Amino acid sequence: MLELKNVTKDYKTGDTMFHAVNDVSLTFNKGEFVAILGPSGCGKTTTLNIIGGLDRYTVGDLLINHTSTKEFKEKDWDAYRNNSVGFVFQSYNLINHLSVLDNVELGLTLSGVGLAERKRKAIEVLTRVGLESQLYKRPNKLSGGEKQRVAIARALVNDPDVILADEPTGALDSKTAHEILSLIKEIGKDKLVIMVTHARVYAEEYSTRIVELLDGEVQSDTTFEENTVNAEREYKPRKTAMSFLTALKLSFNNLRTKKLRTIITALASSVGIIGVGLVLAISNGFSKEIDSIERNQLVGLPILIGREEMQIGFDQAGGTTFVPSDYEDDEIVVYDPADLVHRNLFTPEFIAHLELLDDNVYSSIHYEYGYVPVILSDISGDAEVVDLQTVGFSSFIVPDDQISDFYSLQAGAYPTNKYEVVLIVDEWNVIETDVMDALGFDTSTTIHVDDVIGEYLYLGMNDDFYIEQFGFFIPNFNALDDVVDNGVRVTIVGVIQANDNALEFGGLGIKYLYSLKDELLQENSNSSICQIQEGQTSSVFDTSELTDTEKEMLMSFIGCNTTEPFLIQIFTDSVENKTAIKEHIALYNENQDVESMIYETDLAEAIGDTLGTLITSISVVLSAFASISLIVSSIMIGVIIYISVLERTKEIGIIRSLGGRRKDISRVFNAESVIIGAFAGLLGITITFLLTFPINAVASSFDESLSTVAQVNVIHLVLLVLASTVLTFIGGLIPSRIASKKNPVDALRVD
Ligand code: ADP
Ligand code: MG
């Protein structure tokens, strides 16, 4: 069933070729127990390795069941070794970091036998060699004879046709040697056993045939016991394949035997992970902080839709946002900023669309028409016009029913209707002298809150305040008392302070409810000054000619414009609602051409975005620096794996002798680097997480609001472990390739 046909194996030593095996022709049959005898160096091992497919002949052929092996590919040899051959070596060649059971199972694992089946078969053969009580021991805890029994069990477990034993008793005392030889003879009854030995007594006692070699040539071939077995099986090997899980197990067990080194390696390569991890954690913390500022502090900033909208962003210092596309080096490029401005057209159609906005997503919409009301006071006893700027006359931006959430009452009451206004002072009740002067209080004496509450202000009506004289209008300064009497009277009902969460545009002074201005506008837009101004192109005040824009501004100023706002402010209370509002505007834009589209500004978002971009760029740069150590550590892993390859050379030989493919070998080492990489990653993220606590503690001692400046993001952590695994895997690729290229015969010879 096995036939060596004129096999020669040449080795080149220096310049001279030399035949380790020289023109050997031998035929072996099932049932034979062949002893190959000869002095050391005569070529016995080489012959056996050629028969077992571990080594290749230089010239000749090996026939397996009459099939030539000349065209055999690497994978055919792997399959042959795995299915048909069982090796037993003088030095046992067991893998010390695997249990007895796992060692025996390895051959089955390589041919893809399932777990339960594997275990059953392995226990069966181990029982047969008398080791059923030592299944979970490590081989180095066993005696020489026991080790050889494990090796025999391993050779037997795949039920091969051929058992090849290379001086199996060479390291054993004679009593144990006899036991082992009897065992080999017993298990080899219906197989072909070829045993190399240099002890003639053993050969004569146990074998059925002795082949003597000398200097690589057959000296004699004597059969002294007739072969009774004559069954020939067809040669149909199953291909081998090791699963990555098996590779992981092998490498994991191996790493367990060098825990300290593994931990130190992982620790060293986790430094890069920690670096990147901390940068990400801090940028994550900042982003969350910005997000929370946007959500909590800036959410009160309305969505602004002005007549003119421009993209908000950082300018190059002192520069413009305009980048010319094509210009000469010596050319001064001129541009008009107005070109970059989009003019929003507040058509009735758009206003109507805006009014359709879901009540639940906004708290109020304010239309600003540019109207500057006439305010009068008679607190001092004389009616006088009060300068609107000076008294900070502005409307609340929070909804009427939420004023108490943003302001605290110092005296009096919150306004409950549009005829009630309040005075805002700062947290120490301070307000500018000018404001109180303008309101008509005597600032040379102490003013108490009670002096303020209950006082009146008046909003003058156009028809009373502007009187026509000689063809143009002048303010009716001579009869301000009448203006006061006919004006809309508002009462100062309270003194309030703004809380931290209030967004103050107007600053300190008089605050009124938005609905007040609305009423004034409705009244004043029908005034005669408005009607007259509407009908002429010259100013009603000094008869000078006005451009269209000037006329519009003038009319807006005196309250004649109630249809075309300058600015629309939409107030809401959450980022989600802002999104809904923007979507509503986008819906309008869908049906518009570019000119009539409406662009809005979300200041809060713009501020958040700008800060966010800044944080992102900073963290990208810092991560890049930290990544350098990631690269360094993957090179280090490459070196470590290479050392491991050197240490595990024997194991490489064993796996190859059991039929493991080159691919399986590289898998074993890839598995090792994957384990180290994943471990380093896990270690790195754990340390990163733990470091966030002291970092936050230190940061918050500088600034209270930085107490969560470092915050890990689970997705980042998972990605970091992946990155560490992938990088170390790449680092280990070259050494694991080197491992897979190792010659199995050489690998086995290493001690
Ligand atoms: P045996 O097993 O009979 O002691 P071997 O088969 O191991 O002998 O070796 C036969 C001869 O081939 C020896 O002289 C040995 O030095 C030589 N040899 C074996 N392997 C190699 C090799 N890889 N390179 C060069 N010479 C080798
Ligand atoms: Mg030898």
Topology, element by element:
Layout: E1 2-13, E2 16-28, E3 33-37, H1 44-51, E4 59-64, E5 67-68, H2 74-84, E6 85-89, H3 100-110, H4 115-128, H5 144-156, E7 162-166, H6 174-187, E8 192-197, H7 200-206, E9 209-214, E10 217-223, H8 244-256, H9 259-297, E11 303-306, E12 308-309, E13 342-343, H10 348-355, E14 364-368, E15 374-377, E16 384-386, E17 394-395, H11 403-406, E18 407-412, E19 420-425, H12 433-439, H13 449-452, E20 456-460, H14 462-465, E21 466-469, E22 472-475, H15 480-486, E23 488-498, E24 509-512, H16 514-524, H17 528-535, H18 548-557, E25 567-571, H19 575-590, E26 601-602, H20 603-647, H21 649-657, H22 662-702, H23 714-740, H24 744-749
Parallel strand pairs: 3-8, 3-9, 6-7, 7-8, 17-24, 19-23
Antiparallel strand pairs: 1-2, 1-4, 4-5, 9-10, 11-25, 11-26, 12-13, 14-25, 15-16, 15-20, 18-23, 19-24, 20-23, 21-22
Helix pairs in contact: 3-4, 3-5, 4-5, 5-6, 8-22, 9-20, 9-22, 9-23, 20-22, 20-23, 22-23
The structure holds adenosine-5'-diphosphate and magnesium ion.
CATH H level of the largest domain: which superfamily? P-loop containing nucleotide triphosphate hydrolases
Number of domains: 3
Helix content: 40-55%
List each distinct ligand once. adenosine-5'-diphosphate, magnesium ion
Strand proportion: 15-25%
Keywords:
binds magnesium ion, 3 domains, 6-stranded mixed beta sheet, 751 residues, alpha+beta
